[in-house]
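hey so u asked for the seq, here:
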Amino acid sequence: MKIPAPHIPERKPLPQADSIAKPRKLAPPPDPTPKHHEGHDHPHAPHAPIPTPPAAAPALQRDLVGAPAPQGFAQTPAAQARSRTAAASAKSGFDAPNVTLKEGAKGQHVETLQGRLKKLGFDPGPIDGDFGPKTEKAVKAFQRDAGEYVDGIVGPKTWAALEKAKPNAPHPPTQPTPAQPTPSSAPKDGFDAPDVTLQEGAKGRHVETLQGRLKKLGFNPGPIDGDFGPKTESAVRDFQRDAGLPVNGNVGPKTWAALEKGKEVLKNPDTPLSRFEQFDQKPPTADYSHVNFRGVAMNKRTVEMIRRAEEIMEKKHGHENFQFSFSQGSYNPGGVRGSAGTHDGGGALDIRTVMHSRGVVDDMVRSLRQAGFAAWSRGRGHDTFSPHIHAIAIGDRDLSRSARSQVSEYGWGGDGLSGSRPDADRDLGRPIPSWAKRYL
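ran it, structure tokens below
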């Protein structure tokens, strides 16, 4: 039996090279996340979102500034803040830099800050890129109005508030702010105390701030020149005494706190007259430290009394920024011939008058007497002395014996000279302070 041969199919010839079919492009895999346009909320997907494997989650959850996170994933708090800031920036046209600024900073970011504050109605001073005290004050005013933490530092929250704020619109209502890390809460009248301690000899803008505040509260620190001299120290002591603080002439946290509170801490805060009443009731501080004051020796108690007399000259008699000058001071044994030992101890002064009119000299005598001196004019035709005022600080424990005798004679209306004649200045009055009467 024959076995048939196996059937071998006929092989077809291969096509020519130019007729080979090109491979078809495969469709890309479907995007697992719903599509949306930047800046607009995407519509809800018609079906549940495709779960993303855990390894891919961080990539999908990254913060997107200006765009919402993919559906099914929440933005982090930082991303939410940046999204809100970006939205506010888009509305206001102001783009805040990512820096933190405070007093002392300089450069273009400070200029940006100053320009924004000025546009919002605050006064940062010149737009010069220098973050000085005026810019800090404007920042604090903005923070207070915006309900932000008031510290004068421009960080992320303050920048965000600056972006949200609308120019030429009423400032946002002031909201309660956290307690400040300063000696007192924000003052009612806009005074912000610097965080420094000052004492006699200090100089600079913080001293000017102190002097301006003292003057506003009715005290006399002398010219507002940034120089913490004896007159400023005397005004500080007067303020401390009136505010019930320890009287040392130094300005630390407690004194700054009282200065911020202002007139509410003073016993007699309202009028210049109340200052004169205080001079009548309160004796000067019993500080007998020796100092050289305007070229002559005296103790600090006498300096305080001179300051009082100068304040009376200015506020009661209208002689602005008046200062006494001296031809002889205290603690001068032997002294000038004719002084009869009155300048051997403390509390004795000879005051120059040759450059002043008769009316000014009259006011000088009145002011010295009201401040607690036994004071007489000399050299005006009723004696043989050269023109000056002789003054003895009533109650000074260092008075010489002859000076004490002059005080007693002043008490009954004498002229303090040998022969005990009536006071030639009696028409000027003899206003002895209440605290001084016990020494007469």
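Residues 286-439 form a domain with the Muramoyl-pentapeptide Carboxypeptidase; domain 2 fold (CATH 3.30.1380). The first helix runs from residue 57 to 60.
lmk if thats what u needed
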